[in-house]
Specification:
It contains ten helices and 18 strands. The strands form four sheets. Strands 11-14-13-12-17-15-18-16 form an eight-stranded parallel sheet. It has a five-stranded mixed sheet with strand order 6-9-8-10-7, with helices on both faces. The two termini are about 35 Å apart. The chain is elongated. With about 350 residues, the protein is an alpha/beta fold. Helix 1 packs parallel to helix 4 and helix 5 packs parallel to helix 6.
């Protein structure tokens, strides 16, 4: 799947309505609870939006999952097509507020984390391969289960080999994902002591791996500058293995980074190759235990650029440059590898 350089976020919510043939209030808005035992028909009626290529997303179109449906056998099923479009289109995904998570391992991680912080289920629907035993960590009374065959699993997952894919979840985009504004960062990052800033990371595998490393090394959040791919892209989700649902992620621009820096008095560092002819005599600090100790008590942002484009001019101007010492003639590492080293060395030891 092609990764989008800019992903669409709609500020206009969609409407979920539930109705039953005998209900007098079948035109009123309501939350969608697929695990509910009462008879209901789910109607997903979006308002107008635009897709990734600028064309309008179809409006006034109702996607129906009948209340008594327990299995789907056709890849032409309208709800299957809807879920596939959620996987394929960033604009459609954010407009509806859902993502597809493929595989038992990331779904288990999401469920385990979410149960510890919220009573509200985050999974709306599970697509389960016939004869698959749902792990206890995933199964729950509030989750609707739809049994599917291997062809539907393949269509939903988008991967060629589905031998290890037995369950797929339709999951709400977490409340920890935000679009930054110029009004400050109160409530976006609970304690911005260590923030990873990604500058034009377009490869979803690298972005997902960096999000997972930030979560593993107890960083406080991830900030996405323009040019980054969607963190809920299917490839990014596979690389993050559920971490995108466990750490605050904010999308914004340099103006908002400057607000963050001023609001929390954050130091600005950027990862950079140790050998580069374009530095114009700019000092490059070598990453070391001594350096890590010197900034241990200081709030900081670590900015990483893409392997192809490197750091933007804004990042070069705003940051002190830090490099990873390496032997021989090696100039750089893969950005996700380098990011893991930086985040390990600079992690908050007091958390």
């Amino acid at each position: 799947m092609k990764c989008l350089n800019k992903f669409f976020i709609s500020t206009t919510p969609f409407t979920l309505t539930t109705s039953s043939p005998n209900s007098p209030a079948n035109n009123k808005s309501s939350n969608f609870h697929p695990g509910s035992r009462r008879t209901q028909r789910v109607h997903l009626t979006p308002k107008k939006a635009h897709s990734d290529d600028g064309s309008k997303i179809a409006s006034k179109k109702t996607i129906v999952l009948p209340p008594n449906a327990t299995a789907i056998t056709s890849t032409s099923n309208p709800f299957v097509k809807h879920c596939v479009k959620i996987r394929q289109s960033s604009s459609y995904r954010h407009f509806h507020g859902f993502v597809l998570v493929v595989g038992a391992t990331p779904i288990r991680e999401i469920c385990s984390f979410h149960k510890a912080v919220s009573d509200r289920p985050i999974i709306e629907c599970l697509f389960v391969l016939d004869n698959y035993f749902i792990p206890e960590e995933i199964d729950g009374n509030d989750v609707r289960v739809i049994h599917v065959n291997s062809e539907v699993i393949k269509k939903l997952s988008g991967v060629q080999s589905v031998d290890s894919v037995e369950v797929i979840a339709l999951v709400r985009i977490p409340s920890t994902f935000h679009i930054a504004t110029d009004k400050g960062f109160s409530g976006l990052f609970s304690l911005p002591h260590r923030i990873l800033v990604l500058d034009g990371i377009q490869d979803p595998g690298n972005l997902g791996t960096l999000v997972r490393s930030a979560t593993a090394f107890r960083w406080d959040g991830v900030f996405l500058l323009p040019g980054c791919c969607d963190p809920f892209n299917d490839k990014a989700l596979r690389a993050s293995r559920g971490a995108s649902f466990q750490i605050p992620i904010v999308s914004g621009n340099w103006q908002q980074i400057n607000i963050l820096r001023q609001e929390f008095r954050m130091k600005m560092f950027a990862g950079h190759p140790s050998k580069n002819d374009d530095l114009s005599n700019q000092l490059v600090i070598g990453l070391s235990n001594e350096f890590a100790d010197s900034v241990a008590n200081s709030p900081l942002c670590l900015i990483l650029g893409s392997e192809g484009g490197g750091l933007s001019e804004d990042s070069m101007r705003a940051c002190e440059l830090v490099s990873i010492p390496m032997a021989g003639d090696f100039e750089s590492l893969n950005v996700s590898v380098a990011g893991g080293i930086f985040m390990y060395m600079l992690q908050n030891q007091n958390k």
